Amino acid sequence: MNRQIVQLFGLSMLLFATLVGFTSRWTVFEAEALKDQALNRRSLIEAQQIPRGLIRAADGTVLARSVPKGSGQRRIFQRTYPEDNLFAHAVGYSFLERGSTGIERYRNDELTGEEDEFSSIFSELQSEQPEGSDVTTTLDLEAQRTAVEALGDRQGAIVAIEPATGRVRAMASSPDFNPNEVPTDRFRELNTDEEARPVVNRATQANYQPGSTFKVVTAAAALDSGKFSSESIVDGTSGQPVSGVPLANFGGQDFGAITLTDGLTNSVNTVWAQVGEQIGPNTLVEYMNRFGFGQDPPLDYPEDQMNASGIRNADGRLVGGDGGFDVGRVAIGQGGAEGQIQVTPLQMAMVAAAVGNEGRLMRPWLTEKIVAPDGRVEESFEPQEQSQVMSAESAGELAAMMSRVVEEGTGTAAALSGVPVAGKTGTAEVAGAQLNQLWFIGFAPVENPQVAIAVTLEDQPLGTQGGQVAAPLAAQVMETLLR
Q: Which of 22, 141, 354, 401 could disulfide-link 57, Cβ–Cβ 3.0 to 4.6 Å?
């Protein structure tokens, strides 16, 4: 009898512990994750009763506001977006019917005026109606407009960052959508378009082959590790064996023995593949990690709307320095089944920014400050260093090499009148070598840069090159920001 009682007691305790465990999981341990789910409607239902704060561009232009509907107990507030599609991906949307994305989701607590338990009780005693705080972003209205217009109806993305601070000044993804249409049937059509994918933020979510823009990462590793200098001589003959397989230069062009600077100016594949093989996979991956590869960017933006850049195998998994990939081909922005380099435009803008900022990579950020309903600045954000990628000397050497690319190499279409520009072009064959992925990354002015940029365009016709098509778009956005 006693043994049966003990067994029953043990079973009861086990069931009780299971109940406590599962209850604690959602109410304590994973409460924040559950609240942050895009499809979680509870916070949105509660937020409908609250005048949600404004979201503003850096110059104060209103990008999102709440308007009242109904009256009395039935009064609710619905979001509206005065600039329509201009900031669709960066700002996102917030609707009961569809959930929330972008800054709207990441800054939901501030926008809804969520208080701690003590403050909430105090507000209730004073019969105060909760009211959201305003969010001022780092986004530049004119630069964003220039970026969106430059992309036009082509699929791709543009990201512009302040190198010295990490402020994101423009983040455009095409095709886009009008967030005011999110509650309508029109949005359902857009959301199921698997080819155009207008609701995907290509700037932070899309993984692309970077082509020759990745040679900037390879160059950083080569220079800063001390294994090469800008004047090191490498054989630029086409048809060099890389991992036992001949690698050709663009158009089969032979360059002979040339300096690393000339190898970057003319984007010579065989030069940079040999550099990659000589520095080795571990050194290359080490510098990639310093640039932020291998992890989601530390951006104040929803995690599920960002992807990590890095070397991915045929299964889509990230591989490290011991992954057995073809380091020579990865070093020029390519790869194979064991590992192919794939990047987001945001990551490549961070690469350009780090070079321009004397080798220091600043954390990218979108929120400038939080302003209370009474006008008080509740929180302002300051630049934070993410990593020291390379020495200032190595960064200066690389910046000079990238300047030559724009002065006389493949990136002359990115040149600005009276403003020195440093950059690198890229053209990657995709879709079974039937189409091209076009790129340009760079920064300006070369001394004390105010803007770093990445531009990419998807599925462009064979024969087009990054220097011809992507570089002029970068020039337009840089000129707007420098103006």
A: 141
